[in-house]
Amino acid sequence: MTANEKSAIYTLLKTAADSKLGYFSPDFPKEDPVFSDDIDAINATEKPLAQETSQQDKIQSQEPAAPQTTTSLEESSPSQSQLTTIAAIAQKVAVCQRCQLSQTRHNTVPGVGPLKPVVMVIGEGPGHDEDMSGEPFVGPAGQLLDKELAAIHLSRHTNTFIANIVKCRPPNNRTPFPEEAAACSSFLEAQIFALKPKMILCAGSTAAKNLLKTEAGVGRLRGNFYDWNGIPVLVTYHPSALLRDSSLKRPAWEDLKLFASKLQILAPDYANQSK
Q: Residue 257 — φ and ψ, nearest 5°?
């Protein structure tokens, strides 16, 4: 098999994997490998040339290999590559029809925040206000979330990216079905991969169950850190739960203080980014 044939097959497989995930597949190296011809392929091409040219002529007559191109996030400046990736994910979300939620949405809600966030907050799914605006957490629950984040020096405008398990509103704000969450999972994973936050805050059981692949609820999960591909994850109550039951505000505040204490260790200057 020739180098060109190997390269074509590799490119086909990599493109298919990237397309399925919605971002650069981690199963493939950041830099494309350099392929070489198999011995049989080299011999097959060299035998006819041997009758007419010298070995030096054959080497000179071979066309130079095409320069290798990569899709590494490190090709350009981090901010530009992240912008390209996050924008590409949002474009894929905008035309997604993987599940039935696409049939009833007004707008997709991919997420909002800076391209170099220290923290990523993951909620359940868009509500009515979010569906109409295209931005997550803009209703009463969103206003409360902003206050919670501000209390530990976090902000969606400077150092925190906010997203949801599903990018389209479930009818009547119901809990997303498992197949709907599964259909959206590659978009969320792509965002985490591109943004590389220092820590993740899961707001509510739906976010925790889908991200951590568990059946446990907030009551059992809160108070401990979990790992998602090397990123510490803390689970707390969804702001909407606090609006329904004010007795949950105190334990939620304890969660936030625990989160902030670990964040202070991982990113000592994070509070300065909230100003």
A: -65, -40
